[in-house]
Design a protein that fits this description.
399 residues; 7-stranded mixed sheet; Aspartate Aminotransferase, domain 1; globular; Aspartate Aminotransferase, domain 2; binds pyridoxal-5'-phosphate
Length: 399
């Protein structure tokens, strides 16, 4: 008989009761160092006092009123995001997929308003992940995810990542824009070449098409800048954000330049919950921490420290790891054995890591992780790698 909770996930048999910073405790009292952050989402770690207080206080006042009325918390959060990014205006929703849906609709509508409704197609990238709704599945383009879900939403063309010739060849009279992740997170923690991002900006300007950036995973400080495209010194036209933006509370956003944002006039797009007082109180509390002087520099420094550790471990265990990659605190290690085996060995050492495409072990600790916790994680990862390496050697000897 089917379980009451729909079994659409292959869940690990771990249930957590509470957390503090980068640590989580299971209901049966075991302690784990959380280097997955609930898929790069619990950016302030667990139980962050400032975030907890903001949520508790807002919950006691008013949680939800709907977008029929003004929402001061959302106005403030939008103003702060505008002040700190390329964007002129922000739409709030509840998830990454919804942010991308909003971004896709905004891009098409802006093109239509500009008198070019025939320009409705998007160039997306192999290895991308944009979400699980029907349009974002089409943008993702992974045939395995689309199978059995009926006609694929029309208008998404896929080309190899980091390949400018392929992008240029794909641009046609029906192209509306390009949608790109600055680091492909789910696809295997694959960073875009900075020059590639600059060339995408240039090609969009050249053809009058729209540059959409999916920063659902890379944004809100994850790579050591508020948004990862800043590393390339360019600005997108439209951008999606989610995951870390609410620090674990569901919140998503579409940030856009006025020229594109103005396409979504009343009646064109909306959501019931999106940007409600509680979610935006969480978002404001997260921003308080991330925008504090020195915080993002700390993420950069800790990211470099962790990456150096991962590179060293990859070199020490060449039968287990192929390489280390990533940006800031969004890091990956391509595995030379099935990555699930390494992940299980990490859990046995008390370290929670997640996986990504291309057989990659993904490490995305809370942005508040300490140097000492990075050292502890490296120790656990090294112990796990040693066990996997021994198993690999035993298997080779037995053959
Ligand atoms: C996780 C993710 C999404 C989807 O976000 P959901 O909140 O799961 O809908 C979209 N794009 C990127 C880059 C992501 O990492």
């Amino acid at each position: 008989m089917i379980s009451a909770l729909l079994p659409n996930y292959a869940r690990a048999d771990l249930a957590f009761e509470r957390g503090e910073g980068a640590w989580l405790w299971t209901v049966d009292g075991r302690r784990f160092l959380d280097f997955g952050s609930g898929i790069a989402t619990a950016s302030l770690g667990h139980g962050h006092p400032h975030l907890v207080k903001a949520i508790a206080e807002q919950a006691a006042k008013v949680m939800h009123t709907s977008n029929l009325y003004r929402i001061p918390q959302a106005e403030r959060l939008a103003a702060r995001l505008v002040e700190n990014t390329f964007a002129d205006s922000v739409f709030f929703c509840n998830s990454g997929a919804e942010a991308n849906e909003g971004m896709i609709k905004m891009m098409r509508r802006a093109m239509s308003d500009a008198g070019k409704p025939e320009r409705f197609r998007f160039i997306c990238f192999e290895g991308a992940f944009h979400g699980r709704t029907l349009a974002t599945l089409a943008a993702t383009g992974n045939p395995h995810y689309m199978e059995g879900f009926g006609p694929v939403v029309e208008g998404f063309d896929h080309v190899p990542f980091n390949n400018m010739n392929a992008v240029r060849a794909a641009i046609g009279p029906a192209t509306c824009g390009i949608i790109v992740e600055p680091v492909q997170g789910e696809g295997g923690v694959r960073p875009a070449d900075m020059q590639f991002l600059r060339d995408l900006r240039a090609v969009c300007d050249e053809y009058g098409i729209i540059l959409g950036m999916d920063e659902v995973q890379t944004g809100m400080g994850r790579t050591g800048k508020l948004f990862a495209h800043e590393w390339a010194g360019i600005t997108p036209d439209v951008m999606s954000s989610a995951k870390g933006i609410g620090g674990g509370f569901p919140l998503g956003a579409v940030l856009a330049k006025e020229q594109f944002a103005k396409a979504l006039v009343p009646g064109t797009h909306g959501t019931t919950y999106g940007g409600n007082p509680l979610a935006c109180a969480a978002g404001n509390a997260v921003l308080d921490v991330i925008l504090a002087p020195g915080f993002l520099e700390g993420v950069q420094r800790k990211g470099n420290k962790l990456k150096t550790e991962l590179e060293t471990i990859a070199r020490e265990f060449p039968t287990v790891f192929v390489d280390a990659r990533g940006l800031g605190l969004l890091l990956g290690m391509k595995a030379a054995v099935p990555v699930a085996q390494i992940q299980a060995a990490c859990v046995a050492e008390g370290l929670m890591a997640i996986t990504a495409g291309e057989n990659v072990l993904r490490l995305a600790p809370p942005l508040v992780v300490t140097d000492s916790e990075i050292d502890q994680a490296a120790g656990m990862l090294r112990a796990a790698a040693a066990k996997v390496a021994a198993a690999v050697a035993n298997k080779a000897a037995a053959q």
